[in-house]
Amino acid sequence: MSAAGNGFTPSIVVFACNWCSYAGADTAGISRIQYSPHIRVIRVMCSGRINPEFVLHAFAQGADGVAVTGCHFGDCHYLFGNHRQVDLFERTKALVRTLGLEDDRVDLEWISAAEGVRYGQYMDAFVKQIQDLGMSPIRAALELERAAEAETPAPETPAVAEVSS
Ligand code: FES
């Protein structure tokens, strides 16, 4: 994958509900709609299942941005899952701020199964937003740590002792 935007390749996690936004991704694919390759989609059954911990875990693993997506109001297959997500998302944003990250690194969007074009447009816009923010400071710290580990020589393997009979 090539570097993009302001010199880094963003790593973006998208949580998508099985019935609407994930199906919207399928529609985008079937319709051969081009959009940013810098996203990794995680399918869940309903946006109401996406707890703040999921989002925080994604950031802790080095995500630069996280989008939570689901069905439009009135379309949730579990009736109120997306309404529940509205409340959860407020908590998610507060926790993301506690981590010292910008609010704009998380987003909540409703996308239906029929909205393949909109799915692609939304992903492009969100990726651009994250590119403008730059690399997450958590990811930057993780990358420094990995680089330091790579430079540290591996401990020598002890020689196998010969056993005399
Ligand atoms: S099933 Fe899509 S938001 Fe609930």
Descriptive report:
By secondary structure, the protein is an alpha/beta fold. It has a single domain, classed as Rossmann fold, CATH 3.40.50.960. 42% of the residues lie in helices and 14% in strands. It is built from 5 helices and 4 strands, in the order E-H-E-H-E-H-E-H-H. The chain has helices at residues 21-30, 52-60, 81-98, 116-133, 137-151; strands spanning 12-17, 39-44, 65-70, 106-110. It has a 4-stranded parallel β-sheet, sandwiched between helices. Strand 1 (12-17), helix 1 (21-30) and strand 2 (39-44) form a beta-alpha-beta unit. Helix 1 (21-30) packs across helix 4 (116-133) and helix 2 (52-60) packs across helix 3. It is elongated. The termini are far apart. The mean pLDDT is 91. It binds FE2/S2 (inorganic) cluster (FES).
Question: What brief labels describe this structure?
Answer:
single chain, 165 residues, Rossmann fold, four-stranded parallel sheet, elongated, binds FE2/S2 (inorganic) cluster
Give a concise summary.
Helix content is 42%, strand content 14%.
Give the helices and strands, then pairings:
Blueprint: E1 12-17, H1 21-30, E2 39-44, H2 52-60, E3 65-70, H3 81-98, E4 106-110, H4 116-133, H5 137-151
Parallel strand pairs: 1-2, 1-3, 3-4
Helix pairs in contact: 1-4, 2-3
The structure holds FE2/S2 (inorganic) cluster.
Distance, first to last CA: 57 Å
Name of the CATH class: Alpha Beta
Name the poorly predicted regions: none
Lateral arrangement of strands in the main beta sheet: 2-1-3-4
Let me know the CATH homologous superfamily. Answer: Lumazine/riboflavin synthase
Main β-sheet, in a few words? 4 strands, parallel
